[in-house]
Write a structure and sequence with these properties.
Elements lengths: L1 H32 L10 H82 L4 E7 L4 E7 L5 E2 L12 E4 L6 E7 L5 E11 L6 E9 L2 E10 L4 E10 L5 E3 L1
Antiparallel strand pairs: 1-5, 1-7, 2-3, 2-6, 4-5, 6-9, 7-8, 9-10
Helix pairs in contact: 1-2
């Protein structure tokens, strides 16, 4: 805008210079022609002709100056209109840029929120619940023991641990019965499943069966036979990987 104003000032100065030049030319012609009047003698016709020619030239010069001034005023008006149009276009462009910036900020916020949701979904998909259940059909008391990757051993005397959502959910004292251990979001690593014949009330051997359930399926546990009080044995070990997949070792 400063450059446009400078151009308009230059244009106005040029118009004034042209007008001043025209007036100078008019004065010069008058001074040149003025000496001819005394040389016309006593002829009124000659004086009248010279005067008429001079008036005609002055009239033509005045008309030319008027036309030049009108043309310059038209050009000046057009230049001012162009300057106003450019200023309006600049304001409109600035407003459009501001609106684009607002839209871009909103899109960036939505993209960040979508990215966070996607990461949360991926993290949720990489987790799995794990449920271990054992059962037996005799009158004996069988205890389930589950040891997680952190070394925490869950059983009837340690059903939960601080900082973990896993727990021994069901403990049966007198069979037939079930014992259940559940971890809603199992940590990656190696787990061990043991069965302990805490009290052999029947006096005979006890057959223990069970299942391992997780997010993507179910796997039966190997059958195990216990006999005598305090007979504890490893049923199986399994691993949860970083993607939530479960497999037996």
């Amino acid at each position: 805008m400063r450059k446009r104003s400078k151009e308009l000032n230059i244009f106005s100065m040029s118009a004034l210079d042209l007008f001043a030049s025209a007036m100078g030319a008019f004065i010069l012609i008058t001074l040149v022609l003025f000496p001819f009047f005394p040389n016309t003698g006593d002829s009124p016709e000659r004086i009248r002709d010279v005067r008429a020619d001079l008036e005609q030239q002055m009239q033509q010069m005045a008309e030319a100056q008027a036309q030049a001034m009108a043309a310059m005023q038209a050009q000046l008006a057009e230049a001012e209109a162009q300057a106003q149009s450019a200023q309006s276009a600049s304001s409109s462009l600035q407003e459009s840029l501001s609106q684009c910036q607002v839209s871009l900020d909103q899109a960036t916020q939505q993209l960040n929120a979508t990215s966070e949701n996607l990461q949360s979904c991926r993290a949720a998909l990489q987790q799995t619940f794990v449920l271990v259940v054992i059962s037996w059909s005799s009158d004996d008391d069988v205890d389930l023991h589950v040891t997680d990757p952190a070394g925490s051993e869950y059983y009837f005397q340690a059903r939960t641990f601080p900082g973990s959502d896993a727990a021994l959910e069901e403990d049966t004292v007198n069979g037939p019965g079930n014992e259940i251990w559940l971890s809603p979001s199992a940590m990656p690593g190696r787990y061990e499943i043991d069965a302990n014949l805490y009290s052999n009330s029947s006096g005979g051997s006890v057959s223990v069966r069970g299942s391992l359930l997780f997010q993507n399926g179910r796997m039966p546990l190997p059958n195990l036979t216990l006999s005598g009080d305090g007979d504890r044995r490893l049923i199986t070990a399994f691993t949860v990987d970083n993607e939530g997949n479960v497999s037996f070792n």
